[in-house]
Amino acid sequence: MFVLETVLTDGIAQLSYLVGDTGTGKAAVIDPRTDVEIYEELARKHGVSITHVFETHIHADFVSGARSLAQRVGTAKVFVSDVQANYQFDAEPVADGQSFDFGSFMLTARHTPGHTPEHMSFLLSEAKHADTPWAVFTGDSLFVGSAGRPDLLGSGETEQLARSLYDTLYNFYLKLEDYVTIYPGHGAGSACGADIGDRLNSTVGYERRTNKFLSFPDYEAFREFVVGDAPPVPWHYPELKKVNAKGPDIMDRLPTIPALPPSEFRKVSREPGVALIDTRSMTAFGGGHVPGSINIGSRPEMSAWVGQMFDLDQRLLLVLDDDEDAERVQRLIVRSGHSQFAGYLAGGMKAWQSSGFPLERLEQMPVHELRDHQSNGTGPTILDVRGPDEWEGGHVPGAEHCFVADMRDRINGLDKDQHYATYCASGYRASIASSLMQSRGFKHVSNVPGSWGAWTAAGYPVEKVKELSHA
């Protein structure tokens, strides 16, 4: 029996796949995530053995689990592209057109450069109809409603990659039959492509009719759209590229994370190279937190934001809602490439408070209070920390745009004595921004819970960039 399982990793919106044949007992995993136990569980569920682990390309947004999975199961080899590849670990090379027989089905590698030079996609066909694929695992070359961005390797390679991407889309994908199902490497929310659709898969025919990336009559128009419309490149992507090219450390279990009593936690927090992350909700953080901590709530998107905010060589010190959350939070963090943990606060903030150590607060300013201040001319400087597209779509009148992903560097030019209020879509990213500012010595910072969602729900006025440009 044919088996196909999709694994969605929330937060980084990454999609990986297990495909197998219960008759032969052989299975492949395509683009496994860092914490690989889930693929073992799926293999056991279907009674198959993982024999092949395929990498479509050198990933930039998460740490690959390919080497860890192969070692963990003991029955698999890792297969990587042999075309313009920069892999620096032992793996089996895969050539364009090479096929792999799993019994009832076959996987055929096709070189599909553009997002990266070495990128491979894998056509899926029945063994008895090997020349008639019914699906394709597209990696980061083609998404639902989008395509892989060609600018992640830097401006020096963008032009060539954009041309390669055009050729991949128009001379490979658009020549497949309409009924061919596409299984991409990412879903909505990933920065590896612009405006990726919500659905986890699609068909070539549907994308042919609806995907803007497949609608351009010539390369020049395509290039202007692709290069000009891409979201900002997360700063940690180049670092993860290096990690994945070199070969990530094999992780057979989560790294050790010691439980530290408050006195030891306080001591460690003062050591060089230690970053203090409070993973509680924004309102809990606002009510009282360890001085110097940055609030990144333990939601799935924590993976991406830890990657954005901290260097890979920093040792992470955590404050949790509950000690039992330690493993769940660790799983979110290791996906961003971080594996060095200084410890977590045993007993949480209750233990910290009972020890008599100092607390710091972060003001939570509801939107109606922000609006009152604004109407009276007494309000703070308002920082919109959302992405550029969100800002251009509408923002609080008088706000300044300061994308949170850039704030590690940009806030150095702001006046630390001035009062600032930060907002995003819901308050999550705004709390990252405001806590970062507070940790850098800003004396009066407020977070806006509910943020843009609450502002618009209250019916308050909205300003748009294009309206300003006509003023």
From TrEMBL:
Entry keyword set: Metal-binding
Source lineage: Bacteria, Pseudomonadati, Planctomycetota, Planctomycetia, Pirellulales
InterPro entries, sorted: Metallo-B-lactamas, Mito_Persulfide_Diox, POD-like_MBL-fold, Rhodanese-like_dom, Rhodanese-like_dom_sf, RibonucZ/Hydroxyglut_hydro
SMART domains in alphabetical order: Lactamase_B, RHOD
Family matches, as CDD domains: POD-like_MBL-fold, RHOD
Protein name as catalogued: MBL fold metallo-hydrolase
Signal peptide: none
Every Rhodanese domain range: 270-361, 376-464
Source superkingdom: Bacteria
A Pfam family this chain is assigned to: Lactamase_B
